[in-house]
# Entry
Amino acid sequence: MASARPNPAAGVFAQGAGRVDVARAVSQSVTAEPGGLSFGRQAWPHTDDQPITRKMTYRNTGSAPVTLRLTAQAIDAGGKALPASMFSVTPDTVTVPAGSEVEASVTADTRGNIPDGVIGGYLQATVDGAVAVSTPLGVEKEVESYDLTLEHLDRSGKPSPGDLTSVLRTDVNFKDAYPLDIESGDSTITLRLPKGKYVIDSRTVDDQGTIMLVHPGLELNSSQTMVLDTRLGRPVSVGVPDASAISMLSEVTYGGRFLDGMKFFNGFSAASFDRQLVAQLGPARKYDLTTKVGGQWLTPAPGGDLDGSPSAYRLAWFFPGGLPAGFTRTVERKDLATIRRDYAVHQVGAFDEAGSGAWLADDWFYINMFLTDFHPPFTHTEYVNTDGGIRWKSVLMESGSDSGAVLDSSATRYEAGRTYDEKWNRGVFGPSLVTGKDEPVFTRTGNVINVWQPSFHGDGAGHGGYSSVTKSHVALYRDGRLLTDLPALFGHIEVPPADAAYRLVAETERGNAFPLSTRTSVAWTFRSAAGEDGRTTALPLSVVRFAPDLDQNNTAPAGRLFTVPLTVQAQPGSSAGSVRKLSVEVSYDDGATWQAANLVGSGGNSTLFLRHPSSDGFVSLRARSTDTSGNTVEQTVIRAYRIVR
# Structure
């Protein structure tokens, strides 16, 4: 460390002593002990702060004495100089005899016009103006802080250690939250914390079950004591109408937002609600927190196990403003929506898993789900509740021998008492323009174009989809000049602020692991300029979704007339216009030759009329669409679906 050179643009806590100068290290005779000086913490308030002094020892292993000039400088986290009074050193010059050592005294003084917080600096020992040894310095001038004492009581009201207590500050940005997880053998714990708002979460597991106690928003503006009394816990219980259904997942999950809008979530999950208790601590008022109580049950397959379970109950209730003091609910079939899902075969021999999780009526929420296992083709029924207009996100995960794919739905609202029929995992597998959070895929923020892992292999029913690929890339052109070519479908691309014509190309190959949509490419043209105030906007892009009526094996009949409905879908929230011109071509030889397809309809909803060859094979599709604003999309899917005699 004695030869390390700090970067003047970075603070001490980002780099320590700096980068070691190896060439100098092998010949340098002067070293310092210790390698860094910590002056600890000066507690708030700072009316009684006193200077703190530490000793620094310099050693000289050379054959001649060395005279060192000593200076100390305090800097903030960004490398900006702070008042010279913060750190001082005496004497300011020392001579270290050959083969000997000398001491210097370094003092940290947090009095005066010194900002609160963690403060760093360097003690520099120079020889003839050149740095010989640089030593990092650090002291904490505590921000306004208070003691929080947590007293834990067991079910009999006696002091007893809890199993886990977590403390999370929420009135800061995500990067400054620094959650604390405390496992202590003491029934009383005292924490020193900055003034602010905190979520306190206490878990206790004993021979009678699990108790979760949560204070959703403790305002720490004075030293105080909180009693974590497990006797406050109340049971959670949910009953479903089918006595044969087996509880596979229960949860109490709460979530909120940090100051910058980023979300946090915590809670518990278990196989069932049996012996699970929960309670909210603190004053009875509304907090900036929402809690989900949810459960999932599977009915046994005819053989008695859960592989190939024919149906599932998936239920959830949301409580804005805090946590419920326990929860009891029994549902009847009439209270639920019924969704019958028909899953087709895509990869032969694949193993599939499917399930659903609940979102709020107007926002996303952390999802827990227990998946149903099966081998397609398969039909499965889900029963879900609809209380408060909640929405359900559903997923299908498909695993082949050396490949995988995922399909997910947009957040869907169902109505109690109604039955819905859905088809999943049928081609044409192609791109869509929403992420798993139902947000745009291609956006612009100021001078940056963002590519958020586009769903390149969604199914014909409109479920977004991702799969393993053998090759992928994204290329962006501005006014005909290539700006970047990324080797993956994700990235942030710096662009000039002025308005310009862009061409964005995305391509993937899936190889032999997938029989369908083996190669997919999309090329968009559009104009874009930096928006106001650095706001994020969705780029004006569209995709073409083909939805042929394929059977459970993802095939269509050869040798006959066949219709393929298609829809041109604009990226949500974008300024893409309505369809002005649309054309489609078809290929029966994997794109070696193309011919115009008969297209009937207008706007973004049309139908292809195709005459399939009489032999087994594949149909490839290529479409080009231009909207009323001049934006275009050209989309090609090789082996879009299979035809059989």
